[in-house]
Design brief:
This protein is of the alpha/beta class. Helix content is about 35%, strand content about 20%. The chain has a six-stranded parallel beta sheet, with helices on both faces. It has a two-stranded antiparallel sheet with strand order 1-2. The two termini are about 15 Å apart.
Length: about 230
Amino acid sequence: MIEVPARPYPFPLDPRHTALVVIDMQRDFIEQGGFGDSLGNDVARLEAIIPTVASLISLFRRQGWLVIHTREAHKTDLSDCPPSKIRRGNPSLKIGEAGAMGRLLVRGEPGNQIVEGLAPIDGEVVIDKPGKGMFWATGLDGTLAERGITHLIFAGVTTEVCVQTSMREANDRGFECLLVEDATESYFAEFKTAAIEMIVAQGGIVGWVAPLGALEKAVAEAGAHV
């Protein structure tokens, strides 16, 4: 076990049974012309964490640990997207409509791809999820069970929505969860802060939180190749 300095207390990382989950680092949320932009958000806040997320992914790749990427993505006929979700928020462009990078949040469209600097490589798992959480209608439970994963490290966007929802779902399934706080972001700084405090409240009711530097140092001190 590798002890990672974290809040609310050190996180016990089991390197034989750990995976990194990178939530929704896709063009639709991070680049101008995508769905996040259509809602009037400042996408530059999310774009700013790309280098940190890239460093985190590189750490896992060097160790040979599993990396999982998720995308919020719907079928081309939108049969897995409730009409209420399409209507909500009154965006300038709705889910399924054509934007600057193709149809918003639709599988296979250019905007639905992971940003170039974080693109998956062969052997990494890519999950298209129709909901906010990573387990709903994805089959991810089986994938993690087959690989013996018990510990999950989280990164991605947005902290208070898809990241926190996925962490809560994982917590309910018995996974030990750590969020890398400088590898996640929200369109609203106060929402990220609140989400992190909710995660670590009451002795880690959802999980642990630590910066990337603490994780890197713990892995290095354990004798791994960083």
